[in-house]
Amino acid sequence: MTWPYKIILQFTEEGKHNRRLLLDRYGVYAQLSALIPILCYQLYRLAIWVSFARQRSRIRYSAVPSSPISKHGRDSRTGSVVIRWRVVKWWLGGEITEGWGMRGHWLAGSVWGTWLLFLCVKETGDDYLHITKRFGVIAASQLPLHYMLSMKSLYSPLAVAFRTSHEELNPWHRMTGRIIYCLLLCHAAWYMNFFVQIGVVQKRLADLVVIIGVLGFAMLTLLVTTSLEVVRRWSYRAFFVCHLIIGVTLMPLLFFHAKSLRIYVIEALALFVFDIVSRKLDTFTGFATIVQIPHTNLVKLTIPVPQSKLRRFAAAPGQHVYLQIPAESTPANTSNPSIHDLCYNPFTIAAVSSSDITLVIRTLRGPTTKAIDNLSHLPKARPPLNIEGPLGSSRHFPNLARDYDRVVMVAGGVGATFILPIYRAVQEQLRIEARSPDRATFAWSMRKTDEAGWAVGSESDSSTETEPRTGNRGLLDDENLKIYLTSGFLAEGNHGDGELLPVDGSVEMADLQKDDESLRGVRVRARQRPDLKVIIDEAFRLGKEENVAVLVCGPKSMAIELRRHVGAWVEKGRDVWFHDESFGW
């Protein structure tokens, strides 16, 4: 099959005008197409709500999970369709291959990319310049959507429309970024080929418009390169700084590169400014009390919160904040103080009281945690820290205690800063409703009991905390909370600076000393890595018709293994809600 496009140099003014109309029209089509998946999702939510309401009235209030009515509902034709849909959803939620993202994202990205390719070639005829320009216009039309998907603000339009948070929109941001880059790669390559074919390479490379285009594409290539996982693991700082600087400076270049792109550039910049202003207005400065947790590399921060924001912090357990160290709090021995002006690190809120919040941070090699570690050594110092939030997807979680018959929670290391507040809230609701506390279980893996010191301390620090508390004996006597001691177990659940794991994600047994169990309020159930298969199987075997919620926050290997064991039960038709809390990007 031959190349269908040819270079047409002799073009009438009417032909150029018609080409410009088509370029603008299909750019608008591509941009407005983004409304279609949003509308489809809203209709899907409506259908789910109607179906759930009907099912709830027929079964949930008239039958217990093991009753014949529930079994009949599962074995009916409608029930079979629902089970198949659950299996498909679960399959789509799995990784296409380790480290490459979910199948659902790739499938949706392929569909979206195919649609944009269709818009790129539709009504281009055999005009080489037309299809070359069309690829550039279609790519630029996706920039506002791309920037919208990157917004961290609580008021992000897409976060509101999809009832989600930034970390769940971020994979879609990466997907649209790949599509945009591929389209612009074709645009740039075909234009350079055009210059070569007509013999004007040197002349055109001296034109300002072309220079801007080449510079912009080179910057975009650098941005894409630093976004690769191998580069991020090597230096997250390099990725972040390049992403921020290039993301801002690229827009003015595109503005002067082509007039037809200016509307999309203005829209993207408007969204960027709106996000910055919204985040700034949602940021407060608190004078933090920073203490080291003995015998660990953990640091506990207690930060007072304005009364006007306390209700938001107490609204849902498991939220997080973005922390930034202002210039006045930067330690004197910091090698590059200006880096803190750009670093906003996410950390989970471990506890909320009537006046402050508690963060627990594992101090690693990153600039933020290094600086906080240095601040913790200053006697009687209460450095001001900038706090943005609260944020997080937990605000949109279902009512776990009410909507699910069993709740299984698993955490590794400081991943418990996310899981433990949710576990306490679920147990408190079960207690209020006079239901068995055995419906919720929590398995917590750590290297030594000292790492639970923050949890024991936070329970006794204040009796006026706004989130549910069970007291010190909660960790000591709670039969549903099991602590496992391991070594070589490095948690990723802190949501701050990353921490390296063994290549195979393995966890070995610890050579434990007796004083490992000396921390008051902590009782160790096992000196081994938790057997996730046993934990999951025990929960699912308690009732064949019961629906189960599973939450995990820990090393990536832990989440992958847990999901594999849960998947075996999904394939058997069980109703499962699964959440893996991770910022691992």
From TrEMBL:
GO molecular function (one): ferric-chelate reductase activity
Annotated ranges, domain FAD-binding FR-type: 269-397
Record GO biological process: copper ion import; intracellular iron ion homeostasis; iron ion transport
A GO cellular component annotation in the UniProt record: plasma membrane
Superkingdom as given in the UniProt entry: Eukaryota
Start and end residues of each stretch annotated as Disordered: 453-475
Keyword terms of this UniProt record: Electron transport, Ion transport, Membrane, Oxidoreductase, Transmembrane, Transmembrane helix, Transport
Topology in the lipid bilayer: Multi-pass membrane protein
Chief localisation class: membrane
Sequence ranges of Basic and acidic residues compositional bias: 466-475
UniProt subcellular location: Membrane
Keyword Phosphoprotein: no
One matching Pfam family: FAD_binding_8
Entries under InterPro entries matching the protein: FAD-bd_8, FAD-bd_FR_type, Fe3_Rdtase_TM_dom, Fe_red_NAD-bd_6, Ferric/Cupric_Reductase, FNR_nucleotide-bd
Keyword Membrane in record: yes
Annotated TM spans: 28-52, 179-199, 205-224, 236-255
Family, similarity comment: Belongs to the ferric reductase (FRE) family.
Protein name: Related to ferric reductase
Organism expressing this protein natively: Rhynchosporium graminicola
